[in-house]
């Protein structure tokens, strides 16, 4: 039995297995988080992950849900990361903060490799550290680059 996409991904991320990550990501991958919008390339992904591991050595990651569409070109994972910030993250000093971050990762695949990844935070401990302690700037361009499947304009409704 082979491991699912989610098990392979989570294992590679948690163990900083750069060889497996290089196999999983396409060279032209585009990466989106609340603080990083549209960074590209496997080198960026590996550098970002290395910085995250330096900042949170010994982190533990768990996979809770995994969904994919019928043709396997889109995958969504719900995962959590137990973290303790004892090292610097990029230019930011360690804070000593710790917690469990619940995240949803959505992937678009081409030929079985990740070409686009979106990360959404469901808990805010790590986000609080990024916004408050480190005062990380938020991206200015918040428009989703993908075409909308449908757009619906709200109609004002009287309540009462």
Automatic annotation (TrEMBL):
InterPro entries: Cyclase_SnoaL-like, NTF2-like_dom_sf. Transmembrane segments: none annotated. It comes from the Bacteria. Pfam families: SnoaL (PF07366). One of its GO terms (biological process) is polyketide metabolic process. This is Putative ester cyclase.
């Amino acid at each position: 039995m082979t491991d699912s996409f989610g098990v392979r991904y989570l294992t590679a991320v948690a163990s900083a297995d750069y060889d497996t990550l290089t196999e999983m990501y396409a060279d032209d991958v585009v990466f989106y988080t609340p603080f990083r919008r549209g960074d590209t390339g496997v080198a960026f992904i590996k550098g970002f992950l290395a910085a995250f591991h330096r900042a949170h050595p010994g982190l533990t990651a768990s996979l809770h849900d995994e969904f994919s569409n019928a043709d396997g070109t889109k995958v969504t994972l719900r995962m959590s990361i137990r973290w303790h910030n004892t090292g610097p993250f990029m230019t930011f000093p360690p804070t000593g903060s710790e917690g469990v971050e619940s995240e949803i990762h959505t992937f678009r695949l081409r030929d079985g490799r990740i070409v686009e990844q979106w990360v959404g935070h469901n808990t805010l401990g790590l986000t609080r550290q990024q916004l408050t302690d480190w005062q990380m700037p938020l991206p200015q361009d918040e428009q989703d680059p993908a075409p909308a499947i449908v757009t619906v304009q709200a109609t004002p409704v009287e309540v009462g």
